[in-house]
Design a protein that fits this description.
Blueprint lengths: L1 H9 L4 H9 L2 H4 L26 H54 L2 H4 L1
């Protein structure tokens, strides 16, 4: 079944269409046999170990990790910008509150007769 799904997705068939085809019995008509075993290559004679080729799964994991890192970085930048906006609004509110307290203290400090 995995070979069928892999073959169909390689041809651009959507997963929903593949599921519908499997439900309709497409696997009965799908002919597949496992590939023949490849002989192992002799290790290099240079004295240094050969670096294995990354598997498709590893490449996929790396790609996903890179994408996640990009998303996290952009979210961090957005969060810092939002933090700066909120900090500026808080500073402005504190300044207005301090001015209002000063005005209130000045009004309370005046005598009754000076307010008239």
């Amino acid at each position: 079944m995995l070979a069928y799904v892999r073959t169909q997705t390689a041809q651009g068939v959507s997963h929903a269409d593949i599921a519908a085809r499997i439900a309709a019995g497409a696997l009965d008509e799908f002919n597949w046999s496992p590939p023949e075993a490849q002989p192992e290559e002799a290790p290099p004679r240079s004295g240094q170990p050969e670096t294995p080729e990354p598997s498709a799964a590893l490449l996929l994991v790396r790609e996903i990790a890179d994408q996640l890192a990009g998303v996290i970085t952009s979210q961090l930048v957005e969060a810092r910008e939002e933090n700066q906006r909120l900090q500026a609004a808080l500073d402005e509110a504190r300044e207005r509150a301090a001015r209002a307290e000063g005005e209130l203290a000045a009004l309370r400090g005046r005598s009754f007769w000076s307010r008239l």
